[in-house]
Amino acid sequence: MKYLLLIGLCIGFVLGTALIPAIIAVSFRKGFLDKPNARKIHTSDIPRLGGTCFFPVCLVVGALMVSLGYRITTEHILQLFHYSGIPILYGMVGAMVLFCFGLLDDIWGLRYRTKFIAQIMAGLLLCVGGVWLKDLHGVFGLHELPIWVGWPVTIFAIVFVTNAINFIDGIDGLASSVCFFTLAYFALLFYRLEAYDYAIVSVTVMGPLLAFMCFNLLGSARRHTKTFMGDTGSLFLGYVICILGIVVSRKVGVEESNLSQFNPMAVAFAPLILPCFDVMRVVLVRKRQGNNPFIADKNHIHHKFLSLGLNQHVVLVIVLLLTAAYAVMTVLLTRVMNVNVVLLLMLVLWTLMNFALKNNNKPSNTDNKKRRKKI
């Protein structure tokens, strides 16, 4: 199975690498570009449709992996997807909904209320497919949830996580790197839990995402080899990651699980602690300042590090290390402490770090370059 997963990762990377240059060319031809402004860091027009490759490539790679698995070991593959086939299909339909709305937003622009409706629709489809939070395992003192509570909680989680990923997409490679780390984390978890069906799902997304990261981080705006994922990519990634987190919480929560000594909710959503904390803080700050919480500004954690004069790549590494550190601490501490105490401790650490960064208003390297150009 591990060789099948590796093959799927490679195929997804190759297909993504082949497809993204065509997407960049079409974006320039049709004018689907992210133009610089006072809030944005980039100084050139960048194509914003890079994320359109994720969903179609995932469909192709997923079908190929299942077909190859069927050729290699018929009974094993059939047994894998006997129970998860219907939920995965509903998840695919939900992902298609977000893909379509994200594409419309990247091309013509949509109001945030319209995107909220799409996210709620996708969450509802997932619940109908049978994947919803049945147990919070002590988070906020809640355990088993009845369906009339579990469905709204699941839809809220879908909307919240999807927007958290969308909100952190503020510098090159940040959202994609956090998502790649999270997907790799899930792939290893599912492999250890012998849930190979969802390990396949994780790997099918990792391939094109890795290809996108190469163009996003290493591409040149001047040579027309750089692209952003846009809302098409961020909405899709946030949705898939939240689905996988919900599935992890249900599988780890089973008594015979080889990870049953850890809190299932902590294991499931630990890599998302930092993005979720950041979106909560940003929304609260915008509301306190009387601004629309869904109108972008420069108040995210990566903007704070940029204000120290650090360049984007250094900030990317710092935020990734913080994401990994928060994930590891959350998982390990819940083995010996109550999950709510751990969440409170993580929140206190997050708050203290933000206060420490609050008064640093030095211009970033990008801002310095803009000033020199004006002079």
Describe the protein's architecture and organization.
This protein starts with a helix and ends with a helix. It is mainly α. The chain has one domain (about 1-375). Helix 3 (about 75-105) runs antiparallel to helix 8 and helix 6 packs parallel to helix 12. The protein has helices at about 1-30, 55-70, 75-105, 110-130, 145-165, 175-190, 195-220, 230-250, 265-270, 275-290, 300-305, 310-335, 340-360, 365-375; strands at about 35, 45. It contains 14 helices and two strands. It has a two-stranded antiparallel sheet.
Features:
globular, 375 residues, disordered C terminus, 1% strand
Integer average pLDDT: 85
- Quickly count the domains: 1
The number of helical runs is: 14
Bin the helical content: over 70%
Radius of gyration: 20 Å
In terms of structural class, how would the helical and strand content be classed? mainly alpha
Shape: globular
Strand content: under 5%
Distance between the termini: 59 Å
The H-and-E topology, N to C, reads as: HEEHHHHHHHHHHHHH
Spatial strand sequence of the major β-sheet: 1-2
Can you summarize the main beta sheet?
2 strands, antiparallel
Query: What are the segments in which pLDDT stays under 50 over at least 5 consecutive residues?
Result: 361-375
Can you describe this structure in just a few lines?
This protein has 14 helices and two strands, in the order αββααααααααααααα.
Write the layout of secondary structure elements.
Elements: H1 2-30, E1 33-34, E2 46-47, H2 54-72, H3 74-107, H4 112-128, H5 147-167, H6 174-192, H7 196-218, H8 230-252, H9 264-269, H10 273-288, H11 301-306, H12 312-333, H13 339-358, H14 365-374
Antiparallel strand pairs: 1-2
